[in-house]
Design goal:
Radius of gyration: 18 Å
Order of helices and strands: HHHHHHHHHHHHHHHH
Strand content: under 5%
Amino acid sequence: MMNKIFTKIPFIDNVLKGIGQIMLQENRWTGLLFLIGIFIGSWQGGIAILLATSVGTFTAMKLGYDKYEINAGLYGFSAALVGVALSFFFQATLLIWILIVLGGALASIIQHFFINKKIPVFTFPFIFIIWVCVFLLHHFTNIPPSEMISAKPEAVAYSEFITPINGFGEVIFQGGLLSGVIFFIAIFISSPAAALYGLAGSLLGAYFSYMDGESIEGIHMGLFGFNAVLSAIVFSGFKKTDGLWVLIAVLITVGIDDFLIDNNILTEVGGVLTFPFVAGTCITLLIQRLFIPKKLN
């Protein structure tokens, strides 16, 4: 039944793949589970991510971008993150909904520029748009923060199992354990290797941050693991060397993450977001290209 819907209405398929591409999975079912997990955390976040991804995908279609890239969801994931981030940081006023629409379209356009230049920037369009929006909204409006930002975190008894799972949830601004579990399952059905390496990356991110003296509460919430999850997924695979590249990428990503947070860099524009992932992954890719022979890579 669902497959028939996807066949008859390819736009829905493209939107769901765009949501799935948040964690680099070109899989409609992954995207659908991500969407469910977000709605569980916040219905406004669910509507925001659905709206922004739809706008980003529609923009790519109207501007005549490559159909294969659109079908793969490459013009949806940054737009999706713009939507959920704005709904996470601010109360859903009319201006915020307008920015979600405009931000979704702009994310698609910026993504296309880098795709054309063959520059792997991953979620950078989302990062740039949110940094600009948060700075302008904080300095030129009085829009209050969302309830998720202003509410005091509940006291939760964490365990070694819950902490790495929370890293998956925080990739899409979800702090609930159930959302994190759903996200992990969503990736596992698409790529077991990506899910397991992502879990290892989240655990390593938490451990390295703990050794670096970061906030225990923040570590338990997954705030020091979600960038590592993404970096690990990028280099996941079944080659013997994949584990080494995952470790290198996670180490670089966590190092950048901890440095920025420790020095309060980017706090005025919404925080580090997924910038440590983008920077750490790009540096690792550069190391691969510069120092490793192609036949061994």
